[in-house]
Amino acid sequence: MHRITCILAFSLLAILSQAQQPVTRIERYGIKEGLSHATVRDIMQDSRGFLWVATEWGLNRYDGKKFKKYLLTGKNGFPDLYLGHLQEGPDGKIWMQTGEGICSLDPNTEKITSYPKANGSFVFFDRGKTTWTSSNGGIAKHHSSSLDSFTLYPADLGPRTNNRYVNDFLEDRNGKLWISTSNGIQVFDRKTSAYISHAVPVQPGRDLLNAMTFMFEDSKGNLYAGTWGEGIMKWNHRTARFDNFYFPGLQRGMNWAYEMQEISLGDKRYFSLGTAMGLAIIDADAMDIGKVSVVQMIGREGSSPELDMGQISALCKDRQNNLWVGTPTGLYKIDPSRQKFAWTNVSKEALFHYVRDIRNPSQIGYATTMKGWWKINVADGKVAPFPLPEGNEKLLNFINAWLTTDSGYWFTSQEGFGFYDIYHNRVVNLSHLADGRTGGIVTDGLGRIWFTVHKKGLRVYDPSTKTIRKVLADSAVAHSLFAAHIFGFVFHDGHVWATGNNRIYKINPVTLGYEMIPSKLQDALFVDKDNRLLVINHRAVYQVLNGELKTIYTVDSLTNRFIDRITQDASGNFWAVTVDGFYKVSNDFKTWISFTEESEVNSMIQVMEMREAGNKKLALVNAQGSFLLFDYASGGQRKDMPPVVISSVLTGDKRVFFPGATKAAITIPHKSAVEIELSVLNFSNETETSIKYQLRGWDNEWKDVLDGKIRFEGLPGGNYSLHLKVFHAGEEYPGETVFRFQVSYPLWQRWWFITLAVIKQKASGQMPQLLPLLDKMGATSREMVGNMSDIVWAINPKNDDAGMLINRMRSHAGALCALKEIHLRFNSNEEIGSIKFNMEQRRNIFLVFKEALNNALKYSGCNTITINIRKEGAAVAISIEDDGKGFEVEDADDGNGLRNMRQRTSDIKGDFFIRSVKQQGTSVAFSCPLT
After folding, report:
1. Cα angle value 720/725/728 (rounded, 5°)
2. How much is the pLDDT for 777?
3. Fewest CB atoms within 10 A around its CB: which of 39, 55, 140, 752?
4. What is the pLDDT of residues 75-124, one digit of tens each?
């Protein structure tokens, strides 16, 4: 799903870092993203975790990846589609206001019910599960689920005009029932059935003080109410009245308050207030009479066209702390946890390095540029220019690498080599010894300084004798680093290590002798906290172990995690900047937790360096002249991931909703396909969320769920359990969802049929000549039925997603391999699931696949069949491989099988290839272009 994503300069988090200009990522969902109408009237999260959105044209259910629309009208649908005021009832039904009264939708059956005899326009359920409705005369208490039996409690709603209403209910933590009306706030005493009015004395010119919009209770038990044009009210427990909080100096539309929610960021609380001018963020702990601290306005003023929110109609905070905003221009989502990434602009020049202070490394750092250094306070993020020694500014401006000592830094730069005593602001310039542009720098444990010179090998400087020696710098010596680019340079395990010339050099600092390890890649070197020597390039991570390279991690064809930068924090976690974002990486490089969306990918790609900054923070500097202090202690903590929810099971024309909510077993008729629809109700960085499944009773492999659906066809009779796991950015979350069902046995596997078959078998001894004919007739009939089923499936437009095709291929292969007791490996990835195929493509793809699979099953004598489906450039590639006896392709009879497969591949403008080696197996591969 494509979403409009906007980055705002958002001062809401200024308290977290006074010098930073934090960034808030706001996502907008409109009609293009699947919403039925852009004008949102109400938002609610139900007990299962689904988000419900009422609009001016229908109801929507959102699961984090797609919207499901409810637009049915008429006898079995809504009386009209102008919906609002959502509530979930005690029985799980979703209640709503329509233009013609009250309606409900039962998610367990998707049955819509209207209540024309109900008094009122919307429903409220108190904690005692009593049903209340609003009306233009007061409130009503209902005595039945049909809402046609009720007691009306009239209320003083002001002058008898058309603008008389009850707008909201609130049951506070003490059980008191508050009601906002057109004539102030009323408290309804359920014991005496009497109202206590809290209308505010009207002041001249402020006749809207009692026109109330909402009621809200914050985490501390404070009560607030909104008004039409007069700001917000706060209940004063001491005086037992509401105090008015007007927003002086702001446009009048700011004081039209429609909705309110509380959000927490660290130890700070904020109120999000929906107004006629957009979304106001208020400091919740700076509320006093006549004093309201508006931290930020998001809306019409100063916003991009995508964020022209206008009047806020609804606010909802989900259970993952995301704030959802309903407006006339769409549905917006704000995730406060994403605001831990806040780039601070420092200089117009690119930043290159973050240098930790020697005496106070956890509090002070320096950012280096081409035109000076900047001093950074890690605690508060404040930045100030740092003066360099006069006359040596150019030498220190473009730092390449440095070594820390007690009083300063040995450094290399574009201009040379030297020592910088930072506390006396003095430089010892030794550039004349460098003989060129310098690069990496290390110390060898003997007090000597090693550094690289661009395409001139290595140098060793002895500070005690002030002498310098050349190492691997002789162009006449084989394997010299002269004229070579040196990519990595570290000291590890008593040796100096360097990479260049497609080799890794291990140099003895005493004898200056060396050993070499072949390496065809341009590699960086990294010594981690476990004292492992890691060799890192864009595509892989290796460990140097016993003179060899041991592979730890490689980029596979399904990811774009080409490593650009890597570092390790004080806790031992790795952090990697890749082509597609920012990741926290486990020690074995198997688990990657993505911070891609939060970190603003474009800025991350241009990161020049990452280093540990102390105080559990990483410092990142980029080529745009900005730095980021990332709190990895909080940033590394993942949000709880909701479990998988099975929303429906379809078999034939029968659909069961939320089968996990009932104890009744699901039975699938024999030979019926079963389609299971499921979701992970995750609304935070949801694009990184995926599901894997295993069908026990069928096979033991975990497979990817494509497009939120799993389809099985032709399952043999028996009992099955479907196990579902959630993964986020490749990391497995604990817990499983388990769904059990059974497939009925075919006629010939039932006891009475088997009995009859035994009797028939005994009788067949009298006419044995009929048995081969009966067998052939049965096989032919089964093949005709199968081919007809394939044609019917292929022409169905509902099956144009590649995910549906892959599910059918997997089910078909799984059923046949199980019958033959052949192990099946079926590999595909989620990326393919959203690709669309036309009818000709999906029919030919499936028939070529089916022919190749049947050949393997019939002729290869294999133990294992491996099927791979992947996207390669602008095509989908499919291969069917077996480990059977193989054959000579040149000698093979080009019968209908091979000829048909080639022709069908040609019909979809693809390529066909077959390879076979005797006693090693056969591989059939073909492709389908996507253009």
Report:
1. 160
2. 40
3. 752
4. 899 999 999 999 999 999 999 999 999 999 999 999 999 999 888 889 99
Q: Give buried/exposed letters for 857-889 (b at 16+ CB in 10 A, else e).
A: beebebeebbbbbbbeeebbbbbbbbbbbbeee
* Number of helices followed by number of strands (H, E) in the chain: 8, 72
**Tokens standing for residue 74:** 């008429």
DSSP for 57-96, written as a single string: TEEEEE-SS-EEEE--BSTTSBS-S--EEEEE-TTSPEEE
Mean pLDDT of 196-221: 86
Amino acid at 485: H
Question: How far is it, in rounded angstroms, from Cα 454 to Cα 735?
Answer: 54
- List 651's β-bridge partners, or say none: 654, 674
> In the chain, helix, strand, coil percent, each to 5?
15, 45, 40
| Distances in whole angstroms, Cα of residue 838 to Cα of each of 156, 797, 878, 908 | 64, 8, 17, 10
d(CA 497, CA 527) in angstroms, rounded, equals: 11
Q: Identify the burial level of 19 via C-beta atoms within 10 angstroms of its C-beta, where 0-12 means exposed, 13-18 middle and 19 or more buried.
A: middle
Nearest-angstrom CA–CA distance, 84 and 97: 5
Evaluate whether 369 touches 356 at the Cβ level (below 8 Å).
Answer: no
Residues, the chain, total?
931
Phi then psi dihedrals of residue 814, to 5 deg: -60, -45
Closest CA to 273 of 288, 256, 290, 285: 256
What is the bridge-based pairing of β-strands 40-45 and 232-236? Answer: unpaired
Rounded Cα gap, residues 368 and 375, in angstroms: 9
- The amino acid present at 185, given as its one-letter code, is I
Could you give phi then psi for residue 77, rounded to 5 degrees? -130, -160
Q: Return d(Cα 329, Cα 309) in angstroms, integer.
A: 6
Q: Is 551 exposed, middle or buried (0-12, 13-18, 19+ CB in 10 A)?
A: exposed
Rg for the chain, CA atoms, rounded: 35
d(CA 104, CA 114): 7
Q: Is the pLDDT of residue 754 over 60?
A: no
Say yes or no to pLDDT of 336 above 80: no
Phi-psi region of 290 (alpha: psi -120 to 50; beta: other; left: phi over 0): left
* Mean model confidence pLDDT for the chain: 83
35, 288 in Cβ contact below 8 A?
Answer: no
Return the number of other C-beta atoms located less than 10 Å from residue 236's C-beta.
13
Token pair of 14 as six digits: 């200024």
Look up residue 456 and give its DSSP letter.
Answer: B
> Do 105 and 719 contact (CB within 8 A), yes or no?
no
* pLDDT tens profile 890-918: 777 666 688 889 999 999 999 999 999 98
Decide: helix, strand or coil at residue 842: helix
Whether the CA torsion 423, 429, 434, 437 is positive or negative: it is positive
- Closest C-alpha among 392, 385, 391, 410 to residue 400: 410
**Which residue, 571, 596, 597, is CA-closest to 586?**
571
pLDDT average, residue stretch 676-689: 84
Cα 829 to Cα 869: distance, rounded to the nearest angstrom = 8
Contacts of 466 (CB under 8 A, 6+ apart): none
Residue 420 · residue 427 · CB < 8 Å: yes
Output the six-digit token pair for 642: 């909701």
Ordered strands of the 495-500 beta sheet: 488-492, 495-500, 503-507, 514-518
Reduce the secondary structure of 498-548 to three states and give it as a string: EEECCEEEEECCCCCCEEEEECCCCCEEEECCCCCEEEECCCEEEEEECCE
Distance CA 586, CA 610 (A): 17
∠ CA 615-621-623 to the nearest 5 degrees?
A: 175
